[in-house]
Amino acid sequence: MSISTAKSPVAVNKDPKIVDGLNLVLADSYALMALTHLAHWNVEGSDFFPLHKIFQEQYENLFEAVDEIAERVRALDAYAIGGLGVLAKAAEMEEFKSPLPQKDYVAALIIAHEKVVDDAVRTRNEAGTAGDLQTQDLMIKRLQWHEKTLWMFKSYLKN
Predict the structure, then answer these.
(1) Does domain 15-157 have CATH number 3.20.20.370?
(2) Model-level pTM?
């Protein structure tokens, strides 16, 4: 069999529910990245140094994640959404006014992470039902990171 006539052994699953779910998680992650970056720039107070550092680590993680999620959409032979207005509208995530007290930044970011988790869980479940193990694996990886971040932020807010 020549290379030009060989068929790919992997069929691309372009399930619209999975693509829509991935694009929503992409939008959520992009919005969360922007909010985290805002908190990084403007946090003040006695915990400035550790929060400034963790916010930077988080927005850098999210920057890599949005690329990976968008590339998964493309691997499914679909198109990733983009543009600040489109992403913001899709994410429907509350923006916060800055400056805020340091604990308020953390509380606001908890809400944003919880939205990403909700949408990633739905996308993971859709991918599992459809047998799209690659998308399911990507969502599991993202969920592990968001759930760990939520645990840390919630622990920080305890008195």
Answers:
(1) no
(2) 0.92
